[in-house]
Write a structure and sequence with these properties.
The complex is a heterodimer of chains A (111) and B (111). Chain A is mainly beta and 111 residues long. Chain A has no helices and eleven strands. In chain A, strands 2, 4, 5, 6, 9, 10 and 11 form a seven-stranded mixed sheet that branches. Chain A has a four-stranded antiparallel sheet with strand order 1-3-8-7, with no helix packed on it. The radius of gyration of chain A is 13 Å and the shape is globular. Chain A starts with a strand and ends with a strand. The relative contact order of chain A is 0.33. The model of chain A has no long low-confidence stretch (mean pLDDT 95). In chain B, the strands form two sheets. In chain B, strands 2, 4, 5, 9, 10 and 11 form a six-stranded mixed sheet that branches. In chain B, strands 1-3-8-7-6 form a five-stranded antiparallel sheet, with no helix packed on it. Chain B is mostly beta strands and 111 residues long. Chain B has no helices and eleven strands. The chains are: A mainly beta (111), B mainly beta (111).
């Protein structure tokens, strides 16, 4: 039981490049989330999903897209990376008791 | 809009001391409140979850209380140890399945 895993752990992009972050969970959870964590701003919700095939916008969705084609996977895409998207990205899933389980994070730098 | 504030932002105590971390939120219409621990460079680990109908939850040396009407929660750590050094975040669940996080309290327990 690996819990929540994220790929990759680190990435450096140039402005304008695109990339996809992968989140996987093996707990059969319906709800999954993508957050970004920045100094002085805490954790902010980017997008979330309440089940396979569904997605919804969070607090800071601009510049990101997501997909949930399979229940266990939640993908976060950056179509044209900007320096303002330099951050640590966390994926989480939520169990039936409302407890959230977090992945180890992806540290992204956009130059 | 729900806002979550944690005071203090940083705290340094000697080993063995009992301590209290504070969390306040602006909208009392919450489903639950969670306390998390984050070690440097790592993801978040859920410590305690208090449902809106509960007053407190305990796990080992940790005790979390909730006063929904006043918009406050406290995390009490008994007999602190150097291994307790980490950032502690509180988060409230309001509408649907979304969490709003505070910025955290960075705790250092000195041997």
């Amino acid at each position: 039981n690996a819990g929540v895993t994220q790929t990759p752990k680190f990435r450096v992009l140039k402005t304008g490049q695109s990339m996809t972050l992968l989140c996987a969970q093996d707990m059969n959870h319906e709800y999954m989330y993508w957050y970004r964590q920045d100094p002085g701003m805490g954790l902010r919700l980017i997008h979330y999903s309440v089940g396979e095939g569904t997605t919804a916008k969070g607090e800071v969705p601009d510049g990101y897209n997501v997909s949930r084609l399979k229940k266990q996977n939640f993908l976060l895409g950056l179509e044209s990376a900007a320096p303002s998207q330099t951050s640590v990205y966390f994926c989480a899933s939520m169990g039936r008791a409302y407890e959230q389980y977090f992945g180890p994070g992806t540290r992204l730098t956009v130059t | 809009k729900q806002e979550v504030t944690q005071i203090p932002a940083a705290l340094s105590v000697p080993e063995g001391e009992n301590l209290v971390l504070n969390c306040s939120f602006t909208d009392s219409a919450i489903y639950n409140l969670q306390w998390f621990r984050q070690d440097p460079g790592k993801g978040l680990t859920s410590l305690l979850l208090i449902q809106s109908s509960q007053r407190e939850q305990t796990s080992g040396r940790l005790n979390a209380s909730l006063d929904k009407s006043s918009g406050r929660s406290t995390l009490y750590i008994a007999a602190s140890q150097p291994g307790d050094s980490a950032t502690y975040l509180c988060a409230v669940q309001t509408s649907g399945s979304r969490l709003t996080f505070g910025e955290g309290t960075q705790l250092t327990v000195n041997p």
